[in-house]
Amino acid sequence: MVRQNQFDVFLAHNSVDKPHVRIIANKLRAQGLMPWLDEEQILAGELFQVGIQRAISESKSAAICIGLMGVGKWQKLELQTLISQFVEKGMPVIPVLLPNVDKIPDNLIFLQQFNWVSFEDINDDLALNKLDAGIRGKNNIASTQLKIISKVINTANPFMPLNGRIEQSEQFFNREKELREIFEVLNAGSGVELLGDRQIGKSSILQQIKHRASSALTVKWEPIYLNLQKVHTEAEFYESFCEELGIANCAGIDLNRAMRSRRVLLLLDETENLQGNGFTREIRDRLRAFAEDGALRLVVAACTPLDRLFPDSHENGMTSPFQGICLRVELKPWSKETVRRFVAVKLENTGIYFSKKEMEKLWQESQGHPQKLMKACFDLYRQYRQNL
Fold first, then answer.
1. Which of 93, 106, 233, 309 could form a disulfide with 278 if both were Cys (CB 3.0 to 4.6 A apart)?
2. Quick one: pLDDT at residue 2?
3. Contact (Cβ atoms closer than 8 angstroms) between residue 387 and residue 171
4. Domain residue spans in the chain?
5. 3-state class of 122 per DSSP?
6. How far apart are CA 13 and CA 203, in angstroms?
């Protein structure tokens, strides 16, 4: 028995586009709609045309899904007949351009009289919401759009912080491989040279090492983080180091005594500053001596390879202070795929979607550099909110 208006939307499509149409159907179901899909509703042995005629009676609207190969088994005349039946009943007809289709084909030009929906990719939430609004009818479009706008306005810009290190673990993204490598090196008994461009994420990595040290290290070490941008002389270095250790300010033999019973994981940020006017080779040699004695293990973050960073250490046959005690772990820019995943994670549940062209521009501007990407995404998200 035919049940009138049993389905919210009839999905006409080419069989080659079935994977995309299935995803759209599932997303519509998740939003409370019931789509009509031929593979689910046409009975075994039933003629295709008979099933379609039943779909017209059972559905409240039609979505004509157009992929790169057109609409497949639908002939132009059959499609026009189908559409005319929906129009005569006052039911919405919505052309749906699937990913990589940028216009209605010339042989289906009559579809241009309808307001169509274009999916940039299959996870285009804005296109899905527009399709949802069209299926439910014009009176619901404004309501749906208002809900989206309200959601965007009331959601904080997810692309933060713009400057500085990321300290919260929930905001940390895509450096798990490097972290595993760092802890493998530390557990093997060596220090780490953390090498990478400025603002590529070295400070954030150091913070994660500090947070995870207690669970990731096989031997207990006390993690201490020192930002050498805030330390300008050797005296200030020793003062900061002792403060982090929780001991009285000291240096020389007194510090040696204090370190005898300690195992300290020293996380040095902005290591280039150790070659400033306020520092001598002595402090770097002392750090090396602590490391060789087993009281100290180093993670040294720098933009310049350590064997070139301190040229004064090569005088008179001396070696670089960290040579042989630190193995290199390099931070490189993100790949295009990683950039895409990062943006998708950040935009999830915001009501905003970046198009393929916008994603390509973000890639060109950042080249996978996390800090540059964050700033570009922040600006683009802000533009979306201002336009609303």
1. 233
2. 43
3. no
4. 9-153, 175-330, 336-387
5. coil
6. 51
